[in-house]
Amino acid sequence: MTTPAPKNFRAIWISDIHLGTPACQADRLLDFLKHHDSDYLYLVGDVFDGWRLKRGWFWKQSYNDVIQKILRRARKGCRITYIPGNHDAFVRDYSGLQLGGITICNRTEHTTVDGRRLLVLHGDEFDGVVTTARWLAHLGSVMYDFTIWLNRGFNRVRRLFGSLSAWLKHQVKNAVMFIDRFEEVLAHEAKHHKADGVVCGHIHRAAIRDLGGVTYYNTGDWVESCTALVEHVDGSMEIINWSQNH
Fold first, then answer.
1. What is the DSSP string of 40-103?
2. pTM above 0.85, yes or no
3. Which residues of 229-246 are buried (b: 16+ CB within 10 A; e: fewer)?
4. 227 to each of 15, 98, 136, 219, how far by Cα in Å?
5. How far apart are CA 49 and CA 41, in angstroms?
6. Which of 209, 242, 245 has its CA nearest to residue 223?
7. What is the pLDDT along the chain (246 residues), one digit of tens a residue?
8. Least packed by Cβ within 10 Å: which of 50, 59, 61, 196?
9. What is the sign, positive or negative, of the torsion defined by CA atoms of 67, 123, 138, 143?
10. Which residues, in sequence order, are bridge partners of residue 200?
């Protein structure tokens, strides 16, 4: 049986992979990259989870495979941009450099084939918890790891009540930061830069929304939802879910 050729897009955005955590779904990401090619690839932050790795080293072969897959894509001519997030903030020290064919920058712009300008950034700088109470953000990260583990032990509960960890994370986020305003704040930033839209990650909630004439795109994550944002060759945008059915 022949393997189908990868589907080609103009651009792909992925974020919040969290390599270094047991919850990272690297195998699904590898499968996604196997089936989807692009001229541009944007890594929109939290590719590595430095917070988790500082607490204790956890690394699987599949994490190496993800890195090698991305580097091979760069060698084949894909234009790759890496925008660090809060969990891999140590990479921000290398902003402006090109390493292994990958350009590192704190934020960038992407122009779609039909001429729309999109501001691309991780989004953590607009998160009040991360910017004003870093210790609380670290605590939230620990709790999230725990709820992911707990969630996987309660399959029956998941079937009855949905994702336990996603629900708990949503409640914690609601309690400690302005998640309900996150989209509006990012849209305002795009307007400030006279962009037509903004692409971000950070809150692990994939979305495409029009907010007062600015389009807000969130790539989601590769911990639970396994989603990516793509630009088709005609400039149309879509979120691809690569989770339960793949």
1. EEEE-S-SB-HHHHHHS----HHHHHHHHHHHHHHHTT-EEEE---STTGGGGGGTT-EETTEE
2. no
3. bbbeeeeebebbebeeee
4. 9, 26, 27, 6
5. 20
6. 242
7. 445 667 999 999 999 999 999 999 999 999 999 999 999 999 999 999 998 898 899 999 999 999 999 999 999 999 999 999 999 999 999 999 999 999 999 999 999 999 999 999 999 988 764 455 454 444 445 445 555 555 555 555 544 455 555 655 555 555 444 556 788 889 999 999 999 999 999 988 899 999 999 999 999 999 989 999 999 999 999 999 998 655
8. 61
9. negative
10. 218
Report residue 38 as tokens. Answer: 């692009």
C-alpha separations of 110 from 197, 224, 229 in Å? 10, 26, 13
Q: Which residue has the tokens 């990650």?
A: 201
Residues 6+ apart with CB under 8 A from 203: 123, 127, 173, 179, 182, 218
